[in-house]
Structure formats: C-alpha cells, structure tokens
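From the shared-data thread, chain only:
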Amino acid sequence: MKKSSRKTLPSAALPTQDQVVYRHNRGVIKDNAVHALLHDRLFRQRIEKKRKGKGSYQRKAKHAGKIFENPIIKFLIAKIL
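Structure, as tokens:
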C-alpha cells in the first residue's frame, strides 16, 4: 500500500510579504483576541443601498456633474491645433 503524502501549507498566522496584516484599533489585547476584533470597527454592521428591486430608485442622476465630451469635438480641436 502506498501512503498518501501530505503537503505542508504555510501557516496563516505567520505574516508574509504577500499578506496584509490588519492593524486593529483596540489598543493592547489582554484576554481574548477574537472577542476584541469582533468589537472592532472592521466588523460593524453596514447598511447597503439596494441596486435592484423595491427601494432602489435614485432621484439624482447617475452621472450628474460629469462633463461629456463628444469625440468629434476632440478630433476637430486636435485638427485645428
């Protein structure tokens, strides 16, 4: 019988260059790290705006304030200059 070889995966607890380490705002954590992180601002409840369905109607225009330039105008200005 052939034994199955197990590959060792890098530990998630050890920070590497590719991982982003979260800097909490809880000061020095003394007793329970998980409990302290759950009460951090990272895990606050957020209200998401609906994108579809009831309650998703936007009264303001989507692209209000952005200037739309016609590509023909850009071509004519470049040709004159």
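The mean pLDDT is 73.
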